[in-house]
User: Which sequence fits this backbone?
């Protein structure tokens, strides 16, 4: 099983190694000491920038899938209400079939919202393997990995960032500086994970999707569970992996902030704030209805101004107009003048 996993991960390890090495050469060319931990830490940041930039199309698909799921929430609630209290296998299967049929008809899939995480995972483990393998490559007990030769591995392994090597973990730390750095990175990683999840849940979720929704209840629970899991498991993550995860969380928060400001989900608090900003700037609000009246070839706005609205006025002949006489707003002729 171990050999199979190693074989599967090898292409990702090679890609991670080449990207890191390319950025290491770039930072060295601009004057950063190639043997410093800063250079190699910035190479990991560069890896994040490349990977997350390549994943932008997947993120757009994720946002679209989340929007469709929110719009489908009333129909999903009807299906759940239809089978409420029915726990027999036939009812469970029927509810599942109706739900999947709804997803198929509307062209969406709940798994689409998880694609960025699923795609990113192999590169996360690839970086983990590269950092863990530096010492063995430097010692000659493992073959070089792409551009990571024995000399490069020795340089990367000896590089320190605030006294900690990039392959150090909290559990194998030998210095106080390493323990302090890893604890700070673990706290930053867990804290940004919490902020990232809460940002989308609090601002980009409609009130309708929050009511009686088991999925949203589960997400509320995971809002607190996932950061705790990261905090506990983070003591076994190398410093380089912690830098990677913290940086990718910052990218996600920035990316989500842009989405919330410019493409919020319908009915969410972010959409309300977006409409308020447009109103302050005097710009039209998407989805707002306006009534227009066509008069000849001209189009007259009858929405906000209320100047004209309704049907097109039909022309009248002079004799007909004289016979009917002028009318008031209520449609009754005015009283004749008194003499």
Assistant:
């Amino acid at each position: 099983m171990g050999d199979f996993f190693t074989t599967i991960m090898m292409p990702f390890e090679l890609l991670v190694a080449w990207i890191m090495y390319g950025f290491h050469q770039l930072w060295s060319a601009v004057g950063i000491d190639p043997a410093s931990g800063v250079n190699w830490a910035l190479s990991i940041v560069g890896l994040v920038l490349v990977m997350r930039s390549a994943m932008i199309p997947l993120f757009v698909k994720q946002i679209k899938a989340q929007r469709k799921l929110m719009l489908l929430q009333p129909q999903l609630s009807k299906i759940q209400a239809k089978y409420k209290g029915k726990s027999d296998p036939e009812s469970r299967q029927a509810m599942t079939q109706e739900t999947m049929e709804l997803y198929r008809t509307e062209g969406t899939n709940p798994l689409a919202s998880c694609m960025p995480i699923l795609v990113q995972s192999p590169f996360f483990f690839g970086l983990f393997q590269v950092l863990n393998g530096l010492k063995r490559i430097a010692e000659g007990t493992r073959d070089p990995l792409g551009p990571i030769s024995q000399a490069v591995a020795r340089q990367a392994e000896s590089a320190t960032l605030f006294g900690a090597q990039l392959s150090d973990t909290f559990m194998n730390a030998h210095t106080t500086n390493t323990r302090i750095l890893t604890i700070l990175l673990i706290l930053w990683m867990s804290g940004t994970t919490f902020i990232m999840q809460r940002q989308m849940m609090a601002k980009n979720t409609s009130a309708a999707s929050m009511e009686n929704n088991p999925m949203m209840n589960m997400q509320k629970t995971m809002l607190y569970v996932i950061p705790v899991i990261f905090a506990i498991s983070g003591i076994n993550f190398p410093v380089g992996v912690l830098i990677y995860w913290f940086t990718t969380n910052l990218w996600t928060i920035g990316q989500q902030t842009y989405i919330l400001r410019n493409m919020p989900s319908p009915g969410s608090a972010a959409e309300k704030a977006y409409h308020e900003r447009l109103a302050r700037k005097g710009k039209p609000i998407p989805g707002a209805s306006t009534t227009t009246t066509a008069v000849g070839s001209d189009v007259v706005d009858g929405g906000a101004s209320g100047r004209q609205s309704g049907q097109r006025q039909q022309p009248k002949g002079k004799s007909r107009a004289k016979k009917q006489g002028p009318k008031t707003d209520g449609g009754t002729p005015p009283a004749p003048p008194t003499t």
